[in-house]
Amino acid sequence: MTTEELTNKKIGCFSDIHLGLGQDDKKWHDIALDFAKWASDVYKSKGIYELVIPGDIFHNRNMISVETLSVAKKFFDYFKDFDIYI
């Protein structure tokens, strides 16, 4: 990669998704999925295809329900065209 390409490189970033918040509340899952769709659309429109997620994907580290895992799969499906660094 040239210096110019590195200078113009864009990387998306967000954190603290907290899937499973509120004892796996469907409302929070829906909000997270709406965010994923919005963020992936915005990043793509700006030519951003690299994403950094510094942490807190899941709210509870001790137990993750099957429903929350299913929502996580749907969430990351919106970013299937991205290189993701967690």
Concise structural overview:
The protein has 86 residues and is mainly alpha-helical.
Structure description:
- The protein has four helices and three strands, in the order αβααβαβ.
- The chain is mainly alpha-helical.
- The chain has a three-stranded parallel beta sheet with strand order 1-2-3, with no helix packed on it.
- Helix 3 (26-45) runs parallel beside helix 4.
- The two termini are 23 Å apart.
List keywords for this structure.
9% strand; single chain; 86 residues; three-stranded parallel β-sheet; 48% helix
Largest sheet: 3 strands, parallel
Radius of gyration: 14 Å
Form type: elongated
- Residue-averaged pLDDT: 94
Strand content: 5-15%
What percent of residues adopt helix (DSSP H or I)?
40-55%
With helices defined by DSSP (H or I, 4 residues minimum), what is the helix count? 4
Structural class: mainly alpha
Beta strand count: 3
Distance between the termini: 23 Å
Query: N-to-C SSE series?
Result: HEHHEHE
Secondary-structure map with pairings?
Layout lengths: L2 H5 L4 E2 L7 H4 L1 H20 L4 E3 L13 H12 L5 E3 L1
Parallel strand pairs: 1-2, 2-3
Helix pairs in contact: 3-4
